[in-house]
Amino acid sequence: MSIFSNLKKKIVLHKANKTQDSKIQYLRSIGCKVGDGTRFMGEANVGNDPYLVEIGTNCALSAKVTFVCHDGGVKVLNTLGYFDGQRMDKMARIKIGNNCMIGYEAVIMGGVKIGDNVIIGTRSVVTKDIPSGVVAAGMPAKVICTIDEYYKKNKERGCFYPTPNMTKEEKKEYLMNNVPELE
């Protein structure tokens, strides 16, 4: 790739990541399927094969989430001649259900289907399918609880606050007055 085409790509990505609408428009223009109401809280990284990625409606993806539809390990097989001299790629689709939250720096590997109403924890590596209605986290990601258990546990801890429609200043004041100090 020439210096100019690389620079042009960086400029296009920079412009595409300025607003939610421009991110969604850009992703759709390169073949990624993105459902209505889905948000990206940072740069959208759908890898080299965006047409193999499908993201449902009302999802939220934190910054630096990465989709990997290919497996570079096939290089070793190609070099060893496993395909009678023909070079091969190993590729698979990724599908994210509706109403999912994918945490910061999570990696979703090819061949993975994540169900509806799922939370994927920060820095998780998702290598296998995740069923609907659960929280999964880890390297590799494993189901750690159901969505109902997550709700009950955090409600008991008093972790929910009515701040989404507040200004930054209102939110700060509210949280400073209502979130208990750690002992």
Give a verbal description of the structure.
- The chain has helices at 3-16, 20-29, 74-79, 147-156, 168-178, and strands spanning 33-34, 39-40, 53-55, 60-61, 66-68, 94-96, 101-102, 107-109, 113-114, 119-120, 125-126, 134-138, 141-146.
- It is α/β, with parallel strands linked by helices and 183 residues long.
- It has a single domain, classed as Hexapeptide repeat proteins (UDP N-Acetylglucosamine Acyltransferase, domain 1), CATH 2.160.10.
- Strands 2-4-7-10-12-13 form a six-stranded mixed β-sheet. The protein has a four-stranded parallel β-sheet with strand order 1-3-6-9, with helices on one face.
- A hairpin with a 2-residue loop joins strand 12 (134-138) and strand 13 (141-146).
- The protein is elongated, with a radius of gyration of 20 Å.
- The mean pLDDT is 92.
SSE run? HHEEEEEHEEEEEEEEHH
Number of domains: 1
Largest sheet: 6 strands, mixed
The first-level CATH class name: Mainly Beta
CATH topology: UDP N-Acetylglucosamine Acyltransferase, domain 1
Gyration radius, rounded:
20 Å
Any low-confidence stretches, pLDDT <50, length ≥5?
Answer: none
Mean pLDDT: 92
Number of helices: 5
Distance separating the two termini = 55 Å
Helix content: 25-40%
Say how many strands there are: 13
Describe what is shown at a glance.
This protein is an alpha/beta fold.
List the keywords.
single chain; 183 residues; alpha/beta; UDP N-Acetylglucosamine Acyltransferase, domain 1; six-stranded mixed β-sheet; four-stranded parallel β-sheet; 5 helices; 13 strands; 28% helix; 20% strand
